[in-house]
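Anyone up for a design puzzle?
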C-alpha cells in the first residue's frame, strides 16, 4: 500500500488501555495511526514504537481534546503530514463516580469537558475535514443501559455522545461517511482494575453470560469491523460490545 492510498486514523486517548489496543489493531489493518494523548507522552511513544516494530506506521499527537485549539491543530498537522484524515476514533474519556447528591461541580465539569465537549470538539473538526468514505467511531459505555447508582454524571455524558452519533450520521448524508458508537461493558484495563478488590472484579466478571471481563482487544475488534470494509452498511448505531451484560 503506498503512502498516497494509505488511510489515516486518529485515535484519541491512545496511550493505553482500549485506545492503545485500537491503535495496534488499526495499524495491523494497514492504517497510518495518529496516537493522541493528553499527558502520558512516554506511554504514547511506546505504542508508536510497538506499532513500528511490527511494520506499521504511527505518530504521536499531543492534544487535550477539551481544548478546541489543540484539537484543531491535531487535525491540521495530520493533514499536513499525511494529506488528510479518513477515520476518527473518539476513545479519550474520564470516569469519576459519585451519587448525584454527592457529585461536586469539579466532578461534573471535568467529565462534561472531556467526555462530552471533547468528543464534540473532535466530531466538529471531523465533520468538516474527513475525506469522503471515512468512518467515525465514538466510545460510549454500557452504563447508558445499566443505569447503576453513582454513574449519573458519567452515564449522562455517554448518553449525549450516543445522541450526537446518530445525529451526525444524518448530517453527513451524501459523503459516504459512517458514524457509529461502541458501548463497552466492564473491560480489563488498568483504569478499570485499579482500586477494585479482587472480589469486586470477580463479581463484575460474572455479570455477563460469557462470564468474563472484556479485553481491550475485544473492543478493538469491534472498532476494526466498523471502520473496515465489512462495516460499511452500519451507520448511526450504538453497538454494545459487552458480552451480553445488557
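Challenge accepted. My sequence:
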Amino acid at each position: 500500500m503506498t503512502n498516497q492510498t494509505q488511510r489515516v486514523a486518529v485515535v484519541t486517548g491512545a496511550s493505553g488501555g482500549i485506545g492503545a489496543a485500537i491503535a495496534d489493531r488499526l495499524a495491523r489493518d494497514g492504517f497510518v495511526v495518529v496516537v493522541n494523548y493528553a499527558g502520558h507522552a512516554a506511554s504514547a511513544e511506546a505504542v508508536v514504537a510497538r506499532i513500528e516494530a511490527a511494520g506499521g506506521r504511527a505518530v504521536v499527537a499531543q492534544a487535550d481534546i477539551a481544548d478546541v485549539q489543540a484539537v484543531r491543530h491535531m487535525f491540521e498537522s495530520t493533514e499536513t503530514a499525511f494529506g488528510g484524515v479518513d477515520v476518527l476514533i473518539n476513545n479519550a474519556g474520564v470516569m469519576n463516580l459519585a451519587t448525584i447528591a454527592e457529585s461536586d461541580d469539579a466532578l461534573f465539569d471535568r467529565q462534561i469537558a472531556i467526555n462530552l465537549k471533547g468528543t464534540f470538539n473532535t466530531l466538529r473538526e471531523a465533520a468538516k475535514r474527513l475525506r469522503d468514505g471515512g468512518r467515525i467511531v465514538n466510545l460510549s459505555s454500557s452504563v447508558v443501559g445499566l443505569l447503576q447508582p453513582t454513574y449519573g454524571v458519567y452515564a449522562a455524558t455517554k448518553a449525549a455522545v450516543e445522541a450526537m452519533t446518530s445525529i451526525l450520521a444524518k448530517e453527513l448524508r451524501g459523503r459516504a461517511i459512517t458514524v457509529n458508537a461502541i458501548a463497552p461493558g466492564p473491560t480489563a484495563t488498568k483504569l478499570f482494575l485499579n482500586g477494585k478488590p479482587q472480589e469486586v472484579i470477580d463479581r463484575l466478571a460474572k455479570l455477563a453470560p460469557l462470564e468474563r471481563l472484556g479485553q481491550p482487544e475485544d473492543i478493538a475488534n469491534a472498532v476494526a469491523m466498523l471502520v473496515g470494509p465489512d462495516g460499511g452498511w452500519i451507520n448511526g448505531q450504538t453497538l454494545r460490545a459487552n458480552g451480553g451484560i445488557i
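A detail worth pointing out: The CA atoms of residues 197 and 241 lie 24 Å apart.
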